[in-house]
User: What shape does this take?
Amino acid sequence: MSSQAQDLQPYRHFTVNLLCGAGGAEISGVDASQPLGAEVMAELRRALADYCVLFFRDQTLTPAQQIAFARQFGALAETPFIQPLEGHPEMMRIVRERQETKKQNFGGRWHTDMTFSEAPVLGTCLYSRESPAVGGDTIWTNQMLAFDALSPGMQRTLEKLRVMHSARRSYGPKGTYADDDLKGMRINVSEIAERETAHPCVRTHPENGRSILFVNWVYAIRFEDMTEEESAPLLDFLNRHSQRPEFQIRFRWRAGSLALWDNRSTQHIAVNDYPGYRRVMDRLTIAGDKPFYRPQG
Ligand code: SIN
Assistant: This one.
């Protein structure tokens, strides 16, 4: 298994501190409220592809400044099914109130954002406005490492498969959020969530050419031309395999922390372990491409 801990190429415009063997780069020397030049952006894009998640501590951002920061990585995508922040149609505010007791928190199951779309988002930019004193971390998995660790036989099998993705289990009329009362958020369940979209089970990272195991618990519901029941054993294995500790990147938020993750090569989960605390995050997503697979070599 190749490790993310090896610094692939030096960075000239900022300092990189890796959080875990699986990746996660804390970037120092970048003020996200200011426009960044072409050279800085080229290095940030490279770091994002190699380390999966970039973290910027102690940033002071208005919604407009966060939007301007994220737009430097590409056009923004709107998030279906969720009421945006007033005045900012691209932005979603994730709020969990102090008194909420519901077991399910928003983002509290392993997933990759919006893989039910024809062109799932390239990345997600999340900014902490209010963080619990204890808990409320986010954990990501590095799906490039997850693919590399599979046996050659399994890799060859998966390379030929396509997976059907759907928002049904979350936002459909019988989905998780249909009878949910996430107090701080407005979620619109809809029949539209029943739609399915096919993506390759293994996708190629368009920037570094690496193979990515492209499945997730929430939206990848079955293999193409197979039933959900037939697909479940292998999908469950692949998801459990993806969550192995050595593929994980865990981040402890503080108010003012900004994260940008590569949604092409990760799954993530918002840990639900902070009863009695309020947590407020502003989220943007960056439009992506249709996934494709080209064997490495
Ligand atoms: C998300 O799943 O998009 C949100 C993650 C988080 O709130 O930590």
Notes: The longest helix spans residues 228-242. The mean pLDDT is 94. The longest strand covers residues 123-130.
